[in-house]
Amino acid sequence: MLSSTRIRLIEPADAAPIAAHRARDVEAFRPWEPDQPAGFFTPEGQAERIERLLAGYRAGSVWPGVVLAGDQVVGQVTVGGILPQPHLRRGSVGYWIAGVAQNRGHAGQAVGLALRVMTDELGLHRAEASTGLENLPSQRVLRRNGFSPYGVAHSSILIDGSWRDSLLWERVLGD
Questions:
Q1: In angstroms, rounded to a whole number, what is the distance separating the alpha carbons of residues 26 and 30?
Q2: Domain segments of the chain as ranges
Q3: Buried b (16+ CB within 10 A) or exposed e, 61-73
């Protein structure tokens, strides 16, 4: 793992580097993510998205972070669907790393850091995630961070015009 990998809360200034990564990597991410409108890949589209994420953060439903290699934004890690009620206390982890920074340990370290945020800052008890059935690199990231698969959500996400199954992952925090 890389000691230079950090995460922090997303900021409006992150819109341009995120848009640049997403525009460059659109084809690489096509097998794993839903289609996005053209505006998603622009700094303006990302600025709007970041403002929505920060509104969700202020409301307590999401913790949106960026992944940094040194001082450069190389991806995102987000804890979404946060349920802070005492009898639930869970959130779902999602992440991506730019193509130029992949295979260097950033995803694994970012997920580990997000798990710390979930435990220490958000007081959550359970972490969840999902991957495509064929997304073996992402599955390795989750396994290395103590997640276990627990089921399949059939026809759960529309990707590249087809409904796809997702492998569901869980980890109890603090164990």
A1: 6
A2: 5-128
A3: bbbbbbbbbeeeb
Closest CA to 81 of 70, 91, 96: 91
Here the tokens at position 124 are: 């959550």
State pLDDT tens for residues 118-156: 999 999 999 999 999 999 999 999 999 999 999 999 999
Secondary-structure breakdown of the chain: helix, strand, coil percentages, each rounded to the nearest 5: 40, 35, 25
The pairing of beta strand 90-97 with beta strand 148-159: unpaired
Tokens for 60? 């307590």
Instruction: Give the integer Cα–Cα distance in Å for 85 and 55.
Output: 19
Fold that domain 5-128 belongs to in CATH = Aminopeptidase (3.40.630)
What backbone torsions phi and psi does residue 50 show, to the nearest 5 degrees?
-65, -40
